[in-house]
Amino acid sequence: MKKYFYLLTLSIFLFGSCEKEDDPIIDLSAEKQLPKIEVCHYDSDTDTWKTLSISENALNAHLKHGDKLGRCGYTYVPDDAFEQALIDFGYDDFLDNYVLTSNIADIKCFPKHLNNLGIADLTGIEDFKNLQILRVINNNIKSIDLSKNTMLKELYINNNRLQSLNLIKNKALRIVSCPKNELIDLNVTWLPELKEILFYDNSIKMVDLRKSNKLNIIVGYNNKLETILLPEEGLSGNASINLSYNLFRTFEAHGLSASGLSISNNPQLESVDISGCTIGNFSVNNCNLSYLNLRDIAGSFDPEVWRFAFLYTANNPNLTCISIDQNFFTQIRSYNIDPWTTFSEDCGY
């Protein structure tokens, strides 16, 4: 009897346990893993490179030790629009975030430009070691690292979303065009081959061009420029400079040669000294000038090239005197100044 009672009790217990709600099952093997990323890792023991899959939070440590982002022998291209362009050009086969590095290492310029493609990330451009011309106008690029592209001669990156652009490693650059971004910082120091630079419609405060003695075009209007350091050896005689609509308080240049110089519409600009320069057209309208030094200024350019020399200083309410020398009127052909402004060899300043 006890035996039957025991079996009956056990059956009831088992049956009752099936009627209860199932307890949650914890599958440790399915536990969420940290995101993985591939790197090409150098193994010093075997003196070989091999692909490793690591967690994202270990990436910086691997890069500091010389590892490379992406699979060995491949270039990591995370932006689908950029990779699709490489596929269209015949450098890649399908979208997988990777392109064979040997397929791109010798490219000097793309068969077509990369304009208007919706590219947001140019990661991978660093492996285009021989690239000389890059056009990526009208995209959504926020940052770019071109420090490995030392063969680059022409860069056109207009109308993107860049906040900073560092080109200090790109010594071969001849043309830099980066207008209509969100640039605050532009580093173009030590670019000896630079001939043209266009950076208008940004928010740049300072530009150093002292070592770019081959420049003949500088277009930087509509920024927040307070300082610009012009080439130490002057500019070529046909140089054109437009620095209007900025925040200069003073502007000084000596030995400058230019067909045109415009620093108009700088509402805080109080002092300008371009004595000793050779200028074709000079415009400094709509400023707040009280000091303008044009002594020893020359305009003896080839008349076949320039119809020299025009001076515009209108709408400067505090400019009562322009400092000149005795030869000034042999240089100037025409000028437009305010009625209260005069020319003098002795302005008292």
Automatic annotation (TrEMBL):
Keywords: Leucine-rich repeat, Repeat. The keyword Chaperone does not apply. PROSITE patterns: PROKAR_LIPOPROTEIN (PS51257). InterPro entries: CDIRP, LRR_dom_sf. This is Leucine-rich repeat domain-containing protein. It comes from Namhaeicola litoreus.
